[in-house]
Specification:
Length: about 240
């Protein structure tokens, strides 16, 4: 092999190696650029995701806060209503206790009025009065006669006011046709009176517990307003 031929091979080899190095450098630069671009994109995506998560967390926090704030007046109203109901219930229990203990009123007069009022609204002339055992012993037949007189006077007054001819005969005639008597057995009540006609077609429960139960709905509204537990407008809405 001549020296010239050897040199040409060496030059070719050097050129090939140089080209390989250039391509290797380009590949390395491209790889580095691609890697840096990939890292930059990953960082940008991570930052965006972080921002999105942060915004979502802030939005959720605001939403939860608004929900919590919205429930405050509702919960406050619920607790206030529960407290008012608790107070009214305690008032009712105290009223019942006083009624059954006959505290603060003329019980005999109230009992007479309850019996006369019921009979005055019932049809017929023959009635049976049912009392608690203690009241039967305390009042007896004398009280029944008192009720009869009260009813006769009420009926006579009503008839006279209406201009009926029956009024001419006066209370004595009305009382003569009226029959009021005690039941043979005491009633299972703690106070007040239960009235029925002899035939059992009409029954009027004027026991103290029954009266309180019937009147409580109206009374509780009046009590709530007069004690400022609720405003008059609120009580009207409830009614």
């Amino acid at each position: 092999m001549t020296a010239a031929h050897s040199d040409s091979h060496e030059v070719l080899r050097e050129e090939i190696l140089a080209e390989a190095r250039r391509q290797g450098d380009r590949a390395l630069r491209h790889g580095r650029d691609d890697a840096e671009e990939t890292v930059a994109k990953a960082r940008a995506a991570a930052a965006k995701e972080h921002q999105d998560l942060l915004q979502a967390a802030k939005a959720e926090a605001v939403h939860r806060r608004e929900l919590a704030l919205a429930t405050v007046p509702v919960e406050a109203g619920r607790r206030r209503a529960a407290r008012i109901e608790e107070i009214l219930q305690s008032i009712r229990e105290e009223a019942r206790r006083r009624l059954l203990a006959r505290v603060g009123f003329d019980y005999r007069e109230v009992l007479t009025a309850l019996a006369a009022e019921a009979i005055g609204r019932m049809d017929g002339h023959r009635f049976v009065l049912e009392l608690a055992s203690a009241d039967r012993q305390a009042f007896g037949d004398a009280w029944v006669q008192e009720v009869g007189r009260r009813v006769a006077a009420m009926r006579a007054t009503s008839a006279k006011a209406a201009g009926l001819m029956a009024a001419v005969a006066g209370p004595e005639s009305e009382r003569a046709s009226l029959e009021v008597r005690l039941a043979a057995e005491p009633a299972d009540i703690q106070g007040g009176v239960r009235i029925r006609d002899v035939e059992g077609r009409q029954v009027w429960d004027n026991s103290l517990d029954a009266r309180l139960e019937r009147l409580w709905s109206a009374m509780r509204r009046q009590i709530a307003v007069e004690t400022s537990l609720v405003g008059s407008g609120k009580a009207s809405e409830e009614s």
